[in-house]
TrEMBL record:
This is Endonuclease/exonuclease/phosphatase family protein. Residues 39-268 form the Endonuclease/exonuclease/phosphatase domain. Residues 1-27 form the signal peptide. It holds the Pfam family Exo_endo_phos. One of its GO terms (molecular function) is endonuclease activity.
Amino acid sequence: MSLRRRTVEVLIAAGLLGAAAVPPAGAAGQGHPVPLRVATYNIHAGSGMDNVFDLDRQAAELRALDADVIGLQEVDVHWGTRSEWRDVAGELAERLDMQVSFAPIYSLDPETPGASRREFGVAVLSKYRIVSAENHEITRLSTQVPNPVPEPAPGFGEVVVRVKGMPVHVYVTHLDYRGDPSVRIAQVADTRRVMAEDEGRKVLLGDFNAEPGAPELAPLWEDLTDAEPNAPTFPALDPVKRIDFVAVSKDGVRVRDAAVAETLASDHRPVVADLLLRR
C-alpha cells in the first residue's frame, strides 16, 4: 500500500492550527477522488494476546498500518492497574503524532481524592484535522452496576475530519459482546438513527461482536458498504471470526482495498482499508 501526501498535523488543543493551514478544496484536483486510509483496532486496554500491557508494542503496530484515521476500542484512560493508570488514548496519539478524540463509555469517580476520573471507551486518532467531536448515546447493558437493564449510555464516538478540504464523518463503536443479540439489535437501530442525522461522506469503524452475516447487523448493510477484508480478526492467535469492521456510506466513499494485519499486540487483529473520497 503506497504512502500518500498528508496535511499539516498539529494538535487542536495546542491552538496552533488555523483554517489557513488546511489545504484548499481544489488542492488534490477538482473532481478527482481523494485517497484516505482508515483502520479499526480493538486494543484490549493496551495488552497483547499474552495479556502483557505494552504500549510500545501497540504503537509500533499502529504506526505500521500507516493509516490516516484509526478507530480504537477498549481504550483505558486512568482506568486501573491493568493499564498502569495511564491515559492510553493520549499516549498513543502523542507517540503517533496524531490528534485524538476519546469517547468514554464509563466515567467513574477516582479511587482516591484528587486523582483523575477512571474512564473506558473508544477513541479516534487522526492525522487530519479534527474539526468537531461528539459522544453519542446508544443502548447499553452496563458491566459496572448490579442488575443492569438496557438503557441509553455514551460511547458511540463521532468526529468530523477535514481531508483535503472535504469533511468526513468518522464514527467508532463497540457493540455488545453477549451471545443474546437483543442489545446489539437496539444498538444497530441507534447507530442508524445517529448516522442518518448527518449528510455527506461517512465511515464507521468498530468491533461489532458479530460476524457479517449476523441477522442483527443486516440493517446496517442497507445504508453502508462492508470493506470486506476477507479474513478473520478474532482471536488474534489463529482467528476464526471477523467481528471487526470498516464500513462506509454508499454515497461519496468507495473501498479500494482492505486487509487484516497479522499481529498479536492485542487479542484482536486490526482491519485497514484504503478508501477513495468522491467530491
